[in-house]
Amino acid sequence: MVRPGVMGSVLLLAACGSEPPPAPVPEAVPVTLMTVGPREGAGALEVVGTVRLKRETPLAFTSAGQVRGITVREGDRVAAGALLATLDTGPLDAAAAAAAADAARAAADLKRAQRLVAQGWVSQARVESAQAAARSSEAALSAARFNQRNGRIVAPTAGIILRRAAEPGQALAAGTPVLVLGEFASGYVVRLPLSESQMAGVRMGQAARVTLESRPAPLTGVVSEIAGRADERSGTFMVEVRLPADAALRSGMVGRATLMTGGGDGPLLLPATAVFAARAEEGFVWRDEGGVVRARRVALGPVRSEGVVVTAGLAPGDRIVRTGIDRLSEGAKVRPVPAR
Q: Which of 101, 115, 244, 279 has the smallest count of CB within 10 Å of its CB?
């Protein structure tokens, strides 16, 4: 049996030698992290467009008349100088003959006036009038012969017939398109209609990846032309992406172009869930520093469908908290978890 005095001494000694219990270790907060910088699909703009030859030229007769014949059909490939269509030149021949007769008569009138003025029978004003009439007749003859020579359409360069807009026997006004020729030498482009907001990230020489249903591998092109104003009907800006030479390309194909707008030294894009305390074009994000988070001030740009533009405060390679920011404080420990 332990005596009461001994028991009290033991308890007193135990109380003097005990230490306070350790403070509880804060648990790491589970969050999802992301790395700032280019990633697949980051800042990418996808637009559906149409493949065209850069130059698709309407061909027409320079004078009115009836189509005599057309030697090609849509899809035909033609060489430079090939005869494509002819006009009934009967009226043109008659007009040229009449113009030649008028020019001859005016020339004879001029000679006679010059002879008479030398003899004193007419005034110098009569000669000047005859000279003007002769020049006018020569100009009319030149125009008639031009129309006569251009009663045929020849291919200005090698290409493919994209459209046949007339048929033999059809009466046409001057300048009415008969054929549309796609010029091979101009190369292929894909034309993309972009909205005003989409235009903000597009620049000349920008890389684009173009996918076609008929081609297993995408083509890599570059932005070669940006419209100076929007289309009056659709309100969109037409952007052309020049494509590399490929025998499988055809005018009219539908392609999906991905413009790489998120890489390089352009603005970074973050999901809206990563930004807190945003106001007056600035906000904060939680930056991961070896398992501990620190608040980082960032400058904010416009909000896009892909996320919030960050113009300053972060660099590619920084790791920030993507979700779970409402449970954090300065210096909090975090535990990365997979995104759901």
A: 279
* DSSP assignments along 117-178, one per residue: HHHTSS-HHHHHHHHHHHHHHHHHHHHHHHHHHTSEEE-SSSEEEEEE---TT-EE-TT-EE
Q: Is residue 214 part of a domain?
A: yes
Q: Residue 330 belongs to what H/E stretch?
A: none
Contact between 177 and 58 under an 8 Å Cβ cutoff? The reply is: yes
This prediction has a pTM of 0.56
Q: Are 51 and 248 in contact (CB under 8 A)?
A: no
Query: Strand 65-70's sheet: what is its strand order?
Result: 152-154, 83-87, 65-70, 171-172
Looking at the fold, whether 308 and 251 belong to one and the same domain comes out as: no
Distance CA 114, CA 101 (A): 20
Mutual angle of helices 90-119 and 124-149, in 10-degree steps: 160
- In a shared domain, residues 99 and 113: yes
Residue 22 lies in a domain: no
Shared-domain flag, residues 197 and 172:
no
pLDDT along the chain (340 residues), means of 10: 47 49 70 69 75 96 91 96 90 83 90 87 88 91 81 93 95 94 95 86 86 83 91 91 90 88 61 87 90 90 78 81 90 83
